[in-house]
Structure formats: C-alpha cells, structure tokens
Amino acid sequence: MIVSLTNIKTGSKVRVVRIRGGLGIRQRLSCLGIHPGDLIVLQKSGFMRGPVLVNIHGNQVALGRGVAAKILVEVEL
Amino acid sequence: MKFALVGQPNCGKSTIFNHVAGYKAITSNFPGKTVKYSISKMTFQGMISEIVDLPGSYSLTSFDLAELETRKYLLKEEIDVVINVIDASLLGRGLELTLQLLELNLPILICLNMIDEAEGKGININASELSRLLKVPVVTAVAHKGLGINELFEETFKMGQNPVKSQYLSFSKDVEQVIQHLIYHLKKKNYAQNFHITNRFLATKLLENDQYFIDEIKKINARFITTVTDYQHQLEQCRDRTSDVVISSERHHLSMDLYESVVTLSKPRIEIRHYLDNILMHPVFGYISLILVMYLFFHFVFYVGGLVEEPLLDFFYRLLPLIEERLGADSLLFYISSGVVQGLAGGIAIVLPYLFPFLLGLAFLEDLGYLPRIAYLMDTFLHRIGLHGKAIIPLILGYGCTVPAVMATRILESERDRFIASVLTTMVPCAARMTIIFGLVAFYLGPRAAFLVYILNIIVLAISGKILSSLMPEVTPGMIMEIPSYHIPTIKVLLSKVWLRMKEFIVIAWPLLIVGSIALSLLKHWHAESFINQLVAPITLLLGLPIAVGVTLIFGILRKELSMVMLVQALGVTEISTVMNATQIMTFTIFVLFYVPCAATIAVLIKEIGGKRTIETIIFTFFIAILLATATRLVY
Asked: Residue A8 sits in a domain of what CATH number?
C-alpha cells in the first residue's frame, strides 16, 4: 500500500517509493540521503500539524508537514 | 600553498580550521552555521600555508547561498589541496559529495572526522580500504579532541608537494555511456575551460539540470541546450525517472556500495544522549522542557549580572565626585574625564556583567545541539506566521547579535523567507538591548517586568511575521533539516567562542561607548545637546519621556548600549529612578527595543536584502516602536 509519510504510524519502517514535487525538493531531500528506494523509520510525528522526524541511514532529519506529504512510501511488512 | 576544507554541513570543518588557525571561525552544533568562508595563514612544522574554511555543502549541485559560495570558491581559486572532511558516522551520505569532488580532478585528501562517534554507532571503517578504492589518501581524526590533526596536515603538505589529481569513479554502464557521449560533444566545444572544470563534471551537472551551468551554456550557445536535453531524455528512458534523479541515484548507489565494502557493523554503544530526544522533542514534554530551559537561562543571566552590576556601579559613582573635586565642576577637562569614566562604567558595570553569562549560555546551547530541536518544536508555530522551523535559528542567534543573525538567514531557501526573517531578526533584543532590559527594567522594576518585555517582544514578532507574510503571500518551501547528535562542548571551546564574541564588544563597542560619552560631555559643556534634544522632542514628548533623553536615542543608532549608558549621563543623575518613573523606564526600553536597527545591522541588511528593503525595514520597525511605546505610556 502506497501512502504519504504523514499517514503512517510512528515507529513504522517504510520504503520511499516516489517523491512528488519539483526538482528543488527532490534535490534537497537527496542531499540528506532520502532517495526513492531508501528505508526510513518514522520516529516522531509532531502534534498540531507539526513536522515529522525520520531516521534515515542512522541520521535524524526533520521534515515539515508539507514536505512529508510529498514523500510517498510503502510500509514494510 | 593553499588548502581548502570542504565537506557537508556540521562535519567539523571549522573545528579543524580553528585548531590550526586559532579560534577564528564560530563553531556550533547545527548545520549551516558557516555562511561565508574564513581564510587564515597557518604554520605547520615550519611550513607556511593558507587555509580556507568553506561553508558546508551537501552537494555540488547547489541551491542555498552558502553552498553556492563554496562551489564558486572551489572552481575559481587556485587550491593546492582540497581537504574533504567527512563525518564518519554519516559516511554513506558524505561520500556523495566526495564523488562529486573527485570529478573535479584536483588533489584531494579525505579526513574521516568524528571517528569515535562512528564507532559508538557501531560503524567501523576500514580507512586503508577506502583509500585504495577512491585512490586518495584517507586520514582519521577526532577534531574536537585534537586527535589526528597532525597526521592530517602532514599528509596535506605531502600532497601539496607532490600533487596527485583525483580520478572519478564510473557509474553503471548505461548511464556512463550517456555521460561519455555528452562529454564527447563538450570536448569539441571546449566549454568546460570557461569554468575551469573538467568535461566530466560539466556533463554530469548539465544532465542533473543544474540551473547555473544550464544558464551559462545558454548564454554562450543556446542551441547546445537541445543536445543536452536529448541526452537528458536518453537517461530518462534508461531508468524511467527524471535525469536529475538518475544521476543522484547513481551517486547514491555508488556511495552505498563503497560504504558496504569498507564498513563492518557492530552493536552500537548505548548512550543516554540518544534517549534525550524522547523527552526534548516530545510533543508535550518537549515544549515544557523548552520553557524550562529558557526560564533557567533567563535566571542565570539575571542572577550573575545582578550580582556584579550593583557593586561595580557603586564604585564608579563614588569615583565621579572625586574627579569633580580635583578638576572643578566647570572645567573642560572634567567634562572629558567624566565622559571617559561614564563610558567605562557603562561597559564594565552594566554591559559586561550580563553579556558574559548570556554569551556563555548561548554558546552552550548552540554547541550542545539544542537549536535544531527548537526549530523542530517551533516549526508548527512558525508555519502560522508564514515561515518554517529553520527560521528560528537566525531568530535565536539574534538574541546574541543581530549582525551574524541576519547573515544566518542564508540557511533559508526562499528569498521572501530570508527577507521576513531578516526583518524579524532586527526586532529580537540582541545582547546589547538585553543589557538595557536587564540593567534598566530588571534592575529598577524587577525581573518580572523584564520577563514581560521578552514575552511582549515574542508576541510582537509573531504579529509582525503574520503581517509581513500576508503582505507577501507565497508558500514557504517547508523545512528539511538535519537534527545532529548532541555533543557535550568542552569548556575551552565555549570560552574561546565567548571570547571571540566579547572581543567584538571590547574592540568596537567599548571605544564607541567612551567616545560617545565624551561627545555627550562636550555637547553638554557647550550647551549644544539641547539643540539635538529639540530635534527629537516630537518623539520624546509623544512618549512622555524627559526631553534630555532625546540625545541618547540618536546615539543609540550607533550602538544600542549607548542609549542606556548615556542615559545616566544625559539625565545628570546616578540613580535613574529619581528622575524617571516606572512608566517612563518601560516606555523608553520598549522604544529602544524596536526602533531603527543599529548602524552595523543596517550595513549588513543592505548587503543581504538590498538598500530599498533596508529602508522599508527601518520604517517598519520605527513605526512599531512608536506604536508600542505610546501604548506602553498609556497602559503600563
């Protein structure tokens, strides 16, 4: 099932399928090591539509809601 | 010889730089603090060379201004050795930049920094294998402890004497083939020479749709772009992805392959700091901790400052009558020397007691790595005023000094965000204004009143942000920010940092305070200050302040501390509370807090956001100051 990063449970391990949005956001995410095919763990989801915190290759990255909504992921079973 | 430190943000470039250059570059634990390069001479075992600390750069395909600066520097300047610093605990990601550097065909050396951090995470790196695969020397180091620095520079000088140019690593066959075809066309046209780069580097950047190089090529030969787009299409067909993703994925896979061939994983060490975020970034406890941290910080500064301010002030005020006795109350010499004493007193007794604990506390929070956590916590609120979480970093730095804070807005991606953040930053009470709040409001009206000023300030910032962002509607790109691990800073680094920032006060502000005090003394001696006071009278009358305050407001534009230090002198009393009541003290403080940014800030604003916008900022802040100060007069 493919959903956006904002729609998954805290603590789930997911695989990035696609990044919606333009060149800018794709490249900025790729700089921090987030590419299609990568495994990420959703560590925290801020309350009040706050940002999400993910763990990617052992590094913590904070993503604003709007950015997280553009990352489509597949939940690993 | 000239060496350049290049690497991703927060990998320790400035720490290495400071080791060999003396503490000159501010280091902190958040990505992107170095926004412009620093350069210094260094001597190592009798050899002299120049070393450049470049802003951190995730990639050589650059967007933000700091990264662009790095790339420009790398391509333009003659650099003998590029020292590529990598945070060993993030090796996989760091190598993506390394692969791009290798394409530049320059003498390169790799420094695996924070190797202890990596081992703690269970990442054990075989450095000699990495060196063999990349065909460049690799040195391991723990820069903040000074380990490996000697070996690093031994290797660097060796490389400088016998330079070996780096070689690129090939991508997958099908992608590589497209790149080689484009290189063939580029070679015929000789474009790469215009930029002093290799054909290979230019080819990959063009395929990645790098705006800068595409625009430059368009300028030279617009028709060539069709050749480029042809090859971009070929790549897209190869992989069914856009060409930029194809290239970045190739680099990513290559890095991951390298990572896997040199790293053996072991069980990570369990450390308390890895669990800290469970509380400090918690949706509820995170905010409670934030308020607690701020409260403790505030009290620390107030307590330490108050402890020292009173006895010191007493001392200086006992000194004045003595001088008067010696020199005679009307002599010019008395006016000059009382100016000097009052300038000195203001610096020593009012400014320094608060400045030192404040800067120490700020340095501690910065180096610990707490700032990015605040950005995370504040993101949702900042969205409501049209910015995103990262904008909190310049705002927090603004509590230290507005000048570097305005420069720190470069970490924001959009020009509009940078403008709004710059305007808001100028309204954050910097250390100079903090001394006014503490030395005047807290000292005479109590700490609660001072706290009120800070709360009011934050509310005003939020409303101003909202107004500005609705005047310039644009969707902010959203926060994408690394949250680094916590580091306990060493006392030595903290003190060096505080000293570097205090030096600014001692060297620039203090002389100004003294000159300002002398100038005011002379104005008084010649009875000229009433002329200036008359000019400012419309404002002072509106705000219900003593007319004599006028002249301090003018001087305050030079340095904000001047307003307060000279207040004592302008009013001709030692105890301000005898001539100004609580309302007047509060009104004065609120006005000084917001009105016109200081001269140094105006200069940096012109550089960062342009002259027209700077004038808009000055008018905007002045308007807010008048409005709020009038309200304070009526309400407080």
From this structure: 2.30.30.90
